[in-house]
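anyone seen this seq b4? input:
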Amino acid sequence: MSRLIDQLNKLPGVGPKSAQRLAYHLLRMPEDHARALADAIVEMKERSILCERCQNITEASPCTICQEAARDAHTICVVEEPLDLVALERGRGYRGQYHVLHGVISPMDGIGPEQLKVRELLNRLRDGTVTEVIMATNPTLEGEATAMYLQRLIGPLGIRVTRLARGLPAGGDLEYADDITLARAMEGRQEVTS
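predicted toks r here
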């Protein structure tokens, strides 16, 4: 039981007390439900891959978003994590392509550009189709630093680099923003300058 509590405690937003409550709930759960949960977790881990284009988590590559012909191929919205992409899609204010970095530059945590999907983004920009890259990183110190780093790499390519408008709260995450705020932030995006 203590091993399960320790593992549950590693989940985001799950503290020691919540982990303990979840473990006892799982203990009381019928065995077939517990096995179905365990199987679903293992299946998700085995079947999940990264989309060859946008780096989003998917079960087939390219993902369903990248396969949508109606999307604007001239615009790429760069997000930190897959949940940020989900939040922007929920807002329905953006109909272009995406690129998921899988993190932000954070020297304190030992994360540099090499650990992110930056090379894959630059490769997507080489064919000349993309005319605008929207930086939709979170309005945190790390998110801003990552956006500035990418702007310095992309700007010289002649591609317009914009940033989401300041409708999002400082220190907040896209994942928790409401749909209207996200839609307005997308509409009011601005040019990124050095």
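The longest strand covers residues 72-79. The beta strands are 49-50, 57-58, 72-79, 96-100, 132-135, 160-163, 190-191. kinda curious what u guys think
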